[in-house]
Design brief:
- This protein is mainly alpha-helical.
- It has a single domain, classed as Farnesyl Diphosphate Synthase, CATH 1.10.600.
- Helix content is 71%, strand content 1%.
- It contains 15 helices and two strands.
- A two-stranded antiparallel sheet has the order 1-2.
- Strand 1 and strand 2 form a beta hairpin.
- Helix 1 packs across helix 4.
- The two termini are 22 Å apart.
Length: 297
């Protein structure tokens, strides 16, 4: 699939997930109104939606209709949104700008932002638990997979490792370990949840999808690190140079910019190789891998 054909597909995914999220979130005028406004502010109308797009593309790869992964796609995006709200807090990364506008705690206040993140996290698991398109066994396995990806074994553990690493000199293996957890775990869940939603995952195909997801998860983080160095704040939607300001180890700081670009390309090639036994249904996944390192935000 060419990038020209990928763009309309991604637009359809974004339109679909926006509608799913709109239905899932509490109404802005329902009490407690300020909390619900903050939840909606954190989720709707902004963001690349890479994780839901990956979920829908993975549905194509395993041959199931998109409605069967709506809940999984929304749940992963809600977890991602909550993590951004909490990451931006003064006690964490202390960021003022996210997705081209004030961070949630700046638009509202710190306490409301914390509660909004908490509520988004629990809403994600509620969506999976009540997913009418999956049988009870599949729902249980999806909840367990997302819990592992989002919690201490995954994203939250990665954020803890990232905080502990600030100001320290890391080697490449340590940096990869952080980002396999902080960024990669949720991307893996986005790709792997549709196989569970299908109700009959095939081990060899599941392993291939997981390897693909691990590769693009690291490539995604490398590109984020490069955008922090090379990107423009007005384009990337967050303050450029933040990693250096926080004395964080990054792929460009360890490898240099040129080698970081080369490492990202190698990972994308490996991701494509992982899908060698899939038919054209996996073409969107193949194209998304390339998009991840070509994006400018």
């Amino acid at each position: 699939m060419s990038q020209d054909r990928l763009r309309p597909m991604m637009a359809r995914c974004r339109e679909r997930i926006e509608a799913v999220l709109e239905r899932a979130l509490p109404a802005a005028d329902a009490e407690p109104q300020r909390l619900h406004e903050a939840m909606r502010y954190a989720v709707l109308g902004a963001g690349k939606r890479i994780r839901p797009i990956l979920a829908y593309a993975a549905a194509d790869a395993v041959g199931i209709p998109w409605e069967r992964v709506d809940a999984a796609a929304a749940a992963v995006e809600l977890i991602h949104a909550y993590s951004l709200v909490h990451d931006d807090l003064p006690a964490m990364d202390d960021d003022d700008l996210r997705r081209g506008r004030p961070t949630c705690h700046k638009a509202f206040d710190e306490a409301t932002a914390i509660l909004a993140g908490d509520a988004l996290q629990t809403l994600a698991f509620g969506l999976l638990a009540e997913d009418r398109h999956a049988d009870p066994d599949a729902r249980t396995r999806m909840v367990a997979m997302l819990a592992e990806a989002a919690g201490a074994p995954g994203m939250v553990g990665g954020q803890a490792l990232d905080l502990m690493a600030e100001g320290r000199q890391l080697d490449l293996d340590a940096l990869k370990n952080i980002h396999r957890h902080k960024t990669g775990a949720l991307i893996r869940a986005a790709v792997n949840l549709p196989a569970l939603a299908s109700g009959s995952p095939r081990p060899a195909r599941t392993a291939a999808l997981d390897h693909y997801a691990q590769c693009i998860g690291l490539a995604f983080q490398i590109q984020d690190d490069l955008l922090d160095v090379e990107g423009d704040t007005a384009v990337i939607g967050k303050t450029s140079g933040a990693d250096a300001a926080h004395h964080k180890a990054t792929y460009p700081s360890l490898l240099g910019v040129d080698q970081a670009h080369a490492a990202a390309r190698e990972l994308v090639d490996a991701a494509a190789t992982a899908l060698a036994d899939f038919d054209s249904g996996a073409d969107p996944l193949r194209a998304i891998a390339r998009y991840i390192i070509d994006r400018d935000r």
